[in-house]
Amino acid sequence: MTPPPPSAQPFAHPSGARPPVLPADRLPRHVAVVMDGNGRWANQRGLPRTKGHEAGEAALLDVVAGAIEVGVTHLSAYAFSTENWKRSPDEVRFLMGFNREVIRRRRDQLHSWGVRMRWVGRRPRLWGSVIKELEVAQELTKHNTGLTLYFCVNYGGRAEIGDAVQRLAEDVARGRLKPRNVDERTVARYLPEPDMPDVDLFVRSSGEQRTSNFLLWQSAYAEMVFQDRLWPDYDRRDLWEAVQEYVDRERRYGGAVDTPAAPTA
């Protein structure tokens, strides 16, 4: 399969809005997005929850376009968590089929933008038809060099770390790894996507202020931005607002910066 033409560009925002001009060395490299508020959006309109999920598809596509425009190179979208299996069987069935169709429907468009798609999540319980579409999208876009989109389906941060530690322990038991040599970098190599960069900016829509078990390891030093807009109403302008807030913050990674005291009269 051939890469997309380098001239392929995402569609412009209907309002004509353009991204803020920000210094490249201050931009977040990896943005993680919790797409929250679909159910509440539907409830406010007297609609089934499934209609909220359907409306959220356009928001995700617009955010991907906006991430490319502003210069973000890695974007993670929380599409279905390991905890979402607790929802009603009807909603789970809908979400499985919906995720499958979104990937199938949008992969060619994302490919044309130069997006490299990666699936992060567990295989057990996940529908085989969903896995197939995710793997087809990965294969189609594997040579792309633009934005990397991590599509997190059947994903949980604690599950990811637990699975990594299990694989690490198995290698220790087989004598392939010495316990005294295990450190943070060792654990990171056992994660399912070891090349994923750490999250710089963690964004959640809908006003909720929690991480919900998303990219726990990778978000150790992420800047958190919680926004009130429900996901179906969210678009690239909200993402740009979050990126601007990130750029305006001072990141110290546990260090400290002394501010000189103002001179006294």
Write the layout of secondary structure elements.
Elements: E1 30-34, H1 38-44, H2 49-70, E2 74-81, H3 89-112, E3 116-120, H4 128-141, E4 148-155, H5 157-173, H6 184-189, E5 201-204, E6 223-226, H7 236-248
Parallel strand pairs: 1-2, 1-5, 2-4, 3-4, 5-6
Structure description:
The protein has helices at residues 38-44, 49-70, 89-112, 128-141, 157-173, 184-189, 236-248; strands spanning 30-34, 74-81, 116-120, 148-155, 201-204, 223-226. Helices cover 39% and strands 13% of the residues. It has seven helices and six strands. By secondary structure, the protein is an alpha/beta fold. Helix 2 packs across helix 7 (236-248). It has a six-stranded parallel beta sheet, sandwiched between helices. The chain is globular, with a radius of gyration of 20 Å.
Order of helices and strands: EHHEHEHEHHEEH
How would you describe the shape? globular
Low-confidence stretches: none
Percent of residues in beta strands: 5-15%
Helical residue percent band: 25-40%
* Structural classification: alpha/beta
Distance between the termini: 71 Å
Biggest sheet, in brief? 6 strands, parallel
